[in-house]
Design brief:
The complex is a heterodimer of chains A (about 110) and B (about 120).
Chain A: E1 3-6, E2 10-14, E3 19-26, E4 32-38, E5 45-51, E6 56-59, E7 62-67, E8 72-77, E9 86-92, E10 97-98, E11 102-107
Parallel strand pairs in A: 2-11
Antiparallel strand pairs in A: 1-3, 3-8, 4-5, 4-9, 6-7, 7-8, 9-10, 9-11
Chain B: E1 5-7, E2 10-13, E3 19-24, E4 31-38, E5 42-50, E6 53-57, E7 64-68, E8 74-78, E9 87-94, E10 106-107, E11 111-115
Parallel strand pairs in B: 2-11
Antiparallel strand pairs in B: 1-3, 3-8, 4-5, 4-9, 5-6, 7-8, 9-10, 9-11
Chain lengths: ~110, ~120
């Protein structure tokens, strides 16, 4: 069956480092993937979208890649800050299914 | 412009009761999707409505239903509430994506339902 997974439930990093989050998919070839940020008690907020024919997308300190060979999307936050601490979700499909999310904590 | 508005923000019900949640999408957005979020299951897709028609449906029992009005506002209803229905219910709206287009969602703040 189609499956998409985020490989870490939680990720702790030091301020200033680069955070890398992973979204893997099996038995499925998404035309695009999206990344969202969710803060506690709030709805997710759209960050970036990458299409299958795009290798990389950037927005300020955020970068997302899409590797159709590895069946994987990587989401990077460079020069991370404590304010980046949140849960990050990948999403796919016309009916917008979400992965379980990775809870990122950036320590000062 | 105004964001996605969900009401009520918090509510408490008892088992067996039914509940109706409301969602007003961003002006001009014709697609409304509903999600259930719990700590154990994450964000689970309930259904999507477009032009008053259910376009997609997740894997939830028939106790969960929804509808969309001509002004794109949407409601979802849960009947015969169970303890496991306690969750944050999120509504999201988007522009019509078109064939093969991406469906970028704007979420509301959610309605937190507690079933006792």
């Amino acid at each position: 069956s189609q499956k998409i997974e985020q490989n870490s439930e939680a990720l702790n990093i030091q301020e200033g480092k680069t955070a890398t989050l992973t979204c893997n998919y099996t038995n499925y070839s998404p035309a695009y993937l999206q990344w969202y940020r969710q803060d506690p008690g709030r709805g997710p907020v759209f960050l970036l979208l990458i299409r299958e024919n795009e290798k990389e997308k950037r927005k300020e300190r955020l970068k997302v890649t899409f590797d159709t060979t590895l069946k994987q999307s990587l989401f990077h936050i460079t020069a991370s800050q404590p304010a980046d601490s949140a849960t990050y979700l990948c999403a796919w499909g016309n009916d917008m299914r979400f992965g379980a999310g990775t809870r990122l904590t950036v320590k000062p | 412009k105004a964001g996605v508005t969900q009401t009520p923000r918090y509510l408490i019900k008892t088992r067996g009761q039914q509940v109706t949640l409301s969602c007003s999408p961003i002006s001009g957005h014709r697609s409304v999707s509903w999600y259930q979020q719990t700590p154990g299951q994450g964000l689970q897709f309930l259904f999507e409505y477009f032009s008053e028609t259910q376009r997609n449906k997740g894997n939830f029992p028939g106790r969960f239903s929804g509808r969309q009005f001509s002004n794109s506002r949407s409601e979802m209803n849960v009947s015969t509430l169970e303890l496991g229905d306690s969750a944050l219910y999120l509504c999201a709206s988007s522009l019509d994506r078109g064939l093969g287009g991406a469906n970028v969602l704007t979420f509301g703040a959610g309605s937190r339902l507690t079933v006792l």
